[in-house]
């Protein structure tokens, strides 16, 4: 439980599903810091940065984005999960920076204020279809409950954002991930470990791809 939330004992609220799906705190903190660094390293930060956490669940990622970004839009279709996310964000002192929105992700473009505000980054840890992926050799992304390709297009076309992160099963078909970047496009795929445990992969698109190839090589 402390891997999920270091401050678990402060009174973290989780529903049953969240025990299996929440991003461990160290991984969520890394992804948030990396995203912030990528967006601010190439040009001086001139305005507040907003991140959309599209399937926020009980708030593991939302909280960590709140630690570094100016504003977080935390979206989930499930009222109970959203309530947990709001409560947990309060425990971490980030709720004042966060808007909690109960909405189907694919309806977000209808919320004019969301689109007009301008979204700098969309983070998606979409439903993985439970823990079944664990037993498969490879996860076919088109067979996840929400098609990853459709999510990608929706962000670009309706939310007008190209800085995207997908948090996906560790055995995801990487050719499918690369395919989303399009011809001539780039994606950076990161393996996220918690100690020796291979937790998931994060796929970074747009300005989130490491620009300095040398730095990239050094990191490997
Ligand atoms: P899994 O299949 O991995 O168990 P879930 O079904 O729990 O994943 O979904 C992950 C999160 O995404 C949950 O918090 C769920 O409420 C949320 N979610 C699912 N579909 C949508 C949607 N269309 N819009 C917004 N949030 C959604």
Question: What would your notes on this structure say?
Answer:
The protein is an alpha/beta fold and 220 residues long. The chain is 34% helix and 19% strand. A 7-stranded mixed beta sheet has the order 3-2-1-4-5-7-6, with helices on both faces. Helix 3 crosses helix 4. It is globular, with a radius of gyration of 16 Å. The two termini are 30 Å apart. Adenosine-5'-diphosphate is lined by residues 17, 21, 55, 57, 75-78, 81, 104-105, 127-130, 145. Residues 17, 21, 55, 57, 75-78, 81, 104-105, 127-130, 145 line the site of adenosine-5'-diphosphate.
Number of strands: 7
Count of separate DSSP helical elements? 8
Low confidence ranges: none
What molecules are bound to this protein? adenosine-5'-diphosphate
Order of helices and strands: HHEHEHEHEHEHEEH
Strand order of the largest sheet: 3-2-1-4-5-7-6
List strands and helices in order, with pairings.
Blueprint lengths: L17 H4 L3 H17 L8 E4 L6 H9 L2 E6 L2 H14 L5 E5 L9 H6 L3 E4 L23 H10 L6 E5 L5 H7 L6 E8 L2 E9 L7 H7 L1
Parallel strand pairs: 1-2, 1-4, 2-3, 4-5
Antiparallel strand pairs: 5-7, 6-7
Helix pairs in contact: 2-3, 3-4
The chain binds adenosine-5'-diphosphate.
The site of adenosine-5'-diphosphate (ADP) has 16 residues, from strand 2.
């Amino acid at each position: 439980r402390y891997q999920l939330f270091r401050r678990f004992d402060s009174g973290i609220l989780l529903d049953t599903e969240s025990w299996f799906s929440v991003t461990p705190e160290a991984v969520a903190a890394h992804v948030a810091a990396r995203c912030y660094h990528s967006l601010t390293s190439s040009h001086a930060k001139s305005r507040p940065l907003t991140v959309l956490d599209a399937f926020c669940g009980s708030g593991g990622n939302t909280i960590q984005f709140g630690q570094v970004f100016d504003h977080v839009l935390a979206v989930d279709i499930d009222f109970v999960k959203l309530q947990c996310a709001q409560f947990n964000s309060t425990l971490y002192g980030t709720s004042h920076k966060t808007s909690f929105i109960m909405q189907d992700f694919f309806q977000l473009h209808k919320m004019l204020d969301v689109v007009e505000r301008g979204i700098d980054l969309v983070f998606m840890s979409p439903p993985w279809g439970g823990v079944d992926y664990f037993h498969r050799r490879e996860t076919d992304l088109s067979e996840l409950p929400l098609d990853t390709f459709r999510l990608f297009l929706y962000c670009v076309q309706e939310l007008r954002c190209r800085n995207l992160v997908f948090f996906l099963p560790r055995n995801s078909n990487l050719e499918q991930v690369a395919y989303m970047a399009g011809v001539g496009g780039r994606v950076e795929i990161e393996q996220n470990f918690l100690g020796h445990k291979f937790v998931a992969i994060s796929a970074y698109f747009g300005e989130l791809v490491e620009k300095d190839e040398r730095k990239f090589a050094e990191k490997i």
